[in-house]
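User: For my dataset I need records formatted as: sequence, then structure tokens, nothing else. Please produce one.
Assistant:
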Amino acid sequence: TFGADLLNLEEGFAQMESLLNELKEELSGKHQKRVIRVAFVKVKFTDFQQTTAECRSVDTWPLAFKSLLEEGWGRGKGKTVRLIGVGVRFMPSSREAPVRQLELFDDRLS
């Protein structure tokens, strides 16, 4: 949570630089062998409503997160922002159960 609410997107971009540096540091430490699947930005507004914007491609880190912040901020329709969070979700590791997609149609019925 910021000491004072952020009034505009430019203030959000200024805060995002330090958030991304923290995230990169964490990923280079304990998560450096994991494969990133999704990047996301959480935005909490002054009225405590929140939104999350995410994307699957994280090839261009700063640009992807900047775009996600723009998307999330725009959902607030002019509200000031009290908190921004950045993060990633990983591909399942080989130790985790593989993700299976459910079948849309059951072949046993044909």
